[in-house]
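Exercise 7.
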Amino acid sequence: MAQLSPHAFVAKWRSVTVKERSGYQEHFIDLCHLVGHPTPLEDDPVGTRYAFEAGAGKQQGGQGWADVWKRGFFAWEYKGKHANLDRAYQQLLQYRESLQNPPLLVVSDMATIQIHTNFTNTVKQMTVLTLDDLLTPDGLQRLRDLFWHPDAFRATQTTELVTQQAAREFAQLATLQRRYGHDPQRTAHFLIRLLFCLFAEDSGLLPNQVFAKLIKATRSRAPLFTEQLGQLFAAMNCGGFFAMEDIPHFDGRLFDNAEVLPLDSESMAILQRVSELDWSSIEPSILGTLFERSLDPAKRSQLGAHYTSRDDILLIIEPVLMAPLRRRWAAVAQQARELAVQRDAARGNQAKRLQNELQGLLQGFADEIAATRVLDPACGSGNFLFVALKQMLDLEKEVISLAQDLAAGGFFPRVSPEQLYGIEINEYAHELAQVTVWIGYIQWLRDNGFGQPAEPILKPLDTIQRMDAILAYDETGQPVEPAWPAADVIVGNPPFLGGKRLRSELGDTYVETIFVLYKTRVPHEADLVIYWFERARALIEQGQVKRTGLLATQAIRGGANRKVLERIKASGDIFMAWSDRPWIVEGAAVRVSMIGFDQGIETIRTLDGLSVASINANLTTHLDLTKAQRLLENMGIAFMGDTKGGAFDLTPDQAVHMLNAPLNPNGRPNSDVVRPWLNGKDVTARPRGMFIIDFGVDMSEADAALYEEPFAYVEREVKPERINNKRAAYRDRWWIHVESRPALRQALNATHRFIVTPRVAKHRLFAWASRETLPDSRLYVFCRDDDYFFGILHSQVHEVWSLATSSRHGVGNDPTYNNSTCFETFPLPWPPGHEPEGDARVEAIARAARRLVELRNNWLNPEGASEAELKQRTLTNLYNQRPTWLANAHRTLDEAVLAAYGWPVDLSDEAILARLLALNLERAGNHGDG
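Solution. The predicted structure, written as tokens, is:
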């Protein structure tokens, strides 16, 4: 391989003035010799991975060419000496995908080489090498890296890190503004303007670093900065002249006036720091979320928390919005290629007709994409809308690229922010959503070689409305469902607020109003997100929307929430679902379900990323357990435990003190109202020996006061909170637990002990509790005291059923037991109370259950164990370890239970579920359902 010295190379090419086509291959070959790298022909004679004149559209039959291409390294475009290299870079951006998106995009003439990074999710950088640079060790090393080590150009900062840093700095600015008493909304509007100025400057929309120069020049003169910034805002409003520079017309209501809030020296220092960041590389898919947290005082605590990523959002955007467009595009692209072949074989008028047909086909499909309206009815700060916009723009670019490859003409992208619609009630998020979308759009145009939007650069996004999405009032003051903007597709992440928290978060008046407004469609117990699902379902049923993809917590799969999925299945169908995914909501990690649904037109269905024939309302496939009915025979046995609604609980020491107190004025001991108390932790971990003050379900205040010390405790610890409760029953009877469960207490009167299971637990565990104990609402209680019943509940048969019919809870994704779905639908071997007396099968189950409990108790409380050892001996730890003796005990129990059903002992879980469902439907048919 020939070698060339730097001085020889520079001497040869310094005076060359030939045109690009005449000299670029020789120039590139000399560069190869300069760094000791093989030429294209030497390294790849076939030209499949390293070549001159690489077909930029070769994957599509192409006509565009890159001057040099090395797969996985670079695409290189040459221009004549002193030509506009920016234009060459724009060319590369337009067909980089056809060249498999190399990490480096290089443009050069014979004297200058510009190396642009094209790595995913990193800050973009440009390195310039002149002929003089090649005479230096550093410059020559950069050239070697270009050929041998492209990763050497990768920026260390990701776009996410830059965006996070920018948000943190702006949070400090917002804090300083509030310190001086500025209105939060005016502050947010002003800071969003500053944010956009920084982005516009680094993106080349504001010329010649005019904003950074202003900050630097007035760094220690804040009043002068304020005065000059007002003039810049005025110029950006309509276009004009500022600081010897022509300022484009921005408008978009962001610069609707020249108001500037005063800044102090500390604020100016922050502005100086943030102006040094690369704002052109901020990440729009998280920009709005992070800046909303920095500007909204209510969300400042979430600033360092996690956020939803673009990849997560794509799990909804791709199947719901893009899948039909991509299928349509595959057919259009194939038709276009066939037309191009026919055109190339034709002559005269026929060729012209085919050319017009080809152009009309491709431009027509681009128009289809641009006509697709996307609505996010809870858009927040715009992350779903931006990701939708980017995906549509990327698809339209494929159309434009194919049009160029097939010589069918080129056109500017028609997809724009104006086809995005949003509803958002939060004023900070509403304004940020508009700016986020515009920033993302401008970035996309720049990064894909399409320049910038025509002036005015920002157009008002009236399509994003600030309003309540589920409640409005007509001109007479009557509550109505607000009109949603017309759209083809609805996507989004509506607010997650559990049904039990509606009143405390939204107020009684609001909640009662939506209950009345949606009374026949949404159960009162449903979570807030269900109202968005129902609104979208109704719009699909009415033919006003084609497809919807929304998020909810996993609770949507069960209970009252699932009713909306059953309605969706009745009026249309679910075509896509993720039943269980981690997600970030307002900085907190949760588990969610994602659901895509339509009128029943979509034939391709996926569940958890896999193709399935159908998706049930509980987001399962195959066996549809949502058909299971509540059985009358199971009613009145299982109950949720008592809900105290205040600090009624006592430590062992507090309880002992009260229990040892003298008799009360009524002659009764405190043990009447001070009872042992049990919650979920007492079952899964070690019993804590807690007690609770319990005045029953209807004791009068006068009678309760006769128990002097317990009453005084409740009056001191509970009353101050309860008298402010919004619900009159809780407020006026502050000494009584908020949900004292009279039916549970009555059922327990017939037992000498009872069975409990934690509502939420990693393992489905059952344990005995004594009759005098009061169970907490974190437990479900079974009012039976026989070992047979305990054995049925703790068997594989019931566990399989309860897991399949339960919802999931929390980041740990633990099963949540529910009496109505998990137990009241569960068919026991015989209906409760109808077990055959003296039957050997019943006794075998009871015997196995007693043995299981005996072995567990021996392990939990061995003689001579230290306190530290006892601390580790919990039911959760035991079932985590599942030693052989425990597995054997459960196997004996399971075999006895299966024998009672008359089923084989080697049934799979799916087979057990199928038999239980059949038995459930048989029993429901015979006796009616609940």
